[in-house]
Automatic annotation (TrEMBL):
It comes from the Bacteria. It comes from Ktedonobacter racemifer DSM 44963. This is Uncharacterized protein. The lineage of its organism: Bacteria, Bacillati, Chloroflexota, Ktedonobacteria, Ktedonobacterales.
């Protein structure tokens, strides 16, 4: 995605399988050319079905808040709780956010800001403006009653890995 500001956001979809019923979930970034925001969409297919459900926005206020959500991560707990984390870029700063459902529900609530302070992605730059790369080192895992988003950020002045426990 290349925003009107010439900011390039590299993003890939995330896939997770419900550990009990085998449903497949996919989260992906969606961008409309000419806008100043991007969304994360979520869709799923029930095990044995050959069609996907209509995608829904994970962070529905992206347009009004002009936030760029990208690089989604996805996990489904044994209890059937779906969680999606993503980078949220606004005002030249980055946060990590997480939305999650209730057990066995497709409606996600949130987002909750995971990072305790926003960080400057430009510090991860290897070249000129907007050439930073903060990819490849983030994910989302689930445990009993908790999700563990992990990500790379530059709050220390260096690109480092951070993790949080979200109950």
């Amino acid at each position: 995605m290349i925003l009107p500001s010439q900011l390039q956001l590299f993003t890939l979809p995330a896939i997770a399988v419900h550990p009990r019923d085998g449903s497949v979930y996919v989260a992906y970034a969606s961008y409309n050319v000419g806008t100043n925001y991007s969304e994360v969409m979520l869709t799923h297919a029930t095990k044995g079905e050959s069609t996907w459900c209509s995608p829904t926005s994970v962070f529905p206020n992206a347009a009004t808040d002009e936030i760029c959500y990208f690089q989604p991560q996805l996990a489904v707990s044994k209890a059937g709780i779906i969680a999606v984390s993503a980078f949220a870029y606004a005002n030249e700063r980055m946060n990590v956010v997480l939305a999650r459902s209730r057990p066995q529900s497709l409606c996600l609530e949130g987002p909750v800001v995971v990072t305790d302070q926003p960080f400057d992605p430009e510090l991860a730059s290897s070249g000129g403006d907007f050439s930073w790369w903060i990819g490849n080192y983030q994910g989302l895992a689930s445990g009993p009653g908790v999700f563990y988003p992990f990500w790379n950020d530059t709050r220390t002045g260096n690109l480092e890995i951070f993790v949080a426990a979200i109950t």
